[in-house]
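--- STAGE predict ---
source: upstream dedup step, 1 unique chain passed
mode: sequence only
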Amino acid sequence: QFEKLGLSLGVGYSRNQQLLKNTFEETSPSITLSRISPIFLFQNSDDPSAGGILQTVSIGYSTNINRNVSKTISEIARDSSRGIRGDTSYAVRERLGILHSPSLSISPKIGYVSFTPSISYSEAWFTRSKVKTPFLKVDNFNNVPDTTVDFTTTYDYGFHRLYTYNYGVQMGTTLYGIANIGALGVKAIRHSLQPSIGFNYHPDLSSQEKRTYIDPRSHDTVSYSRYEDDNNSGIAMGGKSGTVSLSLGNDFEAKIEHQITPDSTTEDKIRLLNVSLGTGYDLVQKLWSSFSLSSSTQIGTFLNISSNATYSFYPIKYTGADSTEHTLISLGQGILRPTNASFHIGGSFASSETSGGENYDSLKRLFHLNTPDEERQMFLGGNYPGAFVSVPFRPKWNLSYDFSYTLTYAGNVATKNFSANIPISISPTENWSFTFSAQYDLLSKQFIVPNLRVHRDLHCWELNFDYRPSGIIKGFNLEIRLKAPQLRDIKLTRQESTYGTF
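--- STAGE serialize ---
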């Protein structure tokens, strides 16, 4: 990282050597150079807000250079019944690619609408261009001719370039609606709408990369990339595309008033619900993309509810894919067809801590216990004549829960999955912690890979012990390793499982 220059440079080398087969794959080298952050061309360093629309213009840049060399076995299959011996030869292949990727973006705000036009450009450099010349190859096996198509390959060496680009624009705004409640501690509820529409276009640039030949058997025209033997080939072979994306976000928030003292109050903002929906349309293929719907709500760490669903505008084929010739509404079969849905509910509870990080009894806080006598009365049901005993430590604990339900439609069959996971973590002392977790399938009524983990802090070292009593991978894993991130590869491990002992 060169922070003063705003650049990031990476250089790598790798080699995978198969010693017995005498083959290898090598990258020598791989070089990546990019801007850490975009450059704002017209922004005033003394006053970033000056300059109007021009001060939002920014450019970015990255380049990647890769050289790959591989030596592989090229085996010619032989039929021993024909008395022909097997043969093995080696093929060495070298690939080189240089890819430049500059980008330009601007984010003006006109009135209450934000516009984000952008353009991305990529240019690849090559040192050769491939020419494939087909010919018919006839082999006689048992006096039966077998005709196949083979190729004579030549290369046109020199400097070759290949480019591709796409451009688009995103527009969005935010609308607000406020309902003043003024009851039950709720001062107001605010609803925020975030409509957005985007457009992206990629022209057909395949002519600069595509080369064709005539198949000598079928006489069909076959196209291929003239740079298919090198890195970064195919970047211009995608053809023309143009898409429009539509989305709508909804946020519901509440302003809650709390009484602190008889004469003072405080206000908190709580996010009640978030609902997002979106779809898109392909202008070239004239097809609608899936309609997505998601929602979430959270109350502290105790409750987190979320759901996701996707729908198709088209009927289903017998293969399970969409039949895109006609939409459901044009066939009079409704508007949307569900493809998958999921529902999740979870949360966590934990022991409370003081500002210094030490635990204090969360039960006292929950039940408003202020004296030892009140604590004894709650646990023992009355006054206890003995002396009060103060526990010398407060164990840390964490309890979380997670319920997940998914529904996937494949053809006319719906696949359901309903599981629960309730991990429990207890730290009786500062250096010891015990965690138990197990996922339970509520449909098949069985546990999936239950796991007990024991962690021990050994100052500069740490110990981790995982035990799996049942499931697909039963066994244990014991690990003692250095805690320093730079030395974490120094470790002692012992593992026994149904997959073997290491």
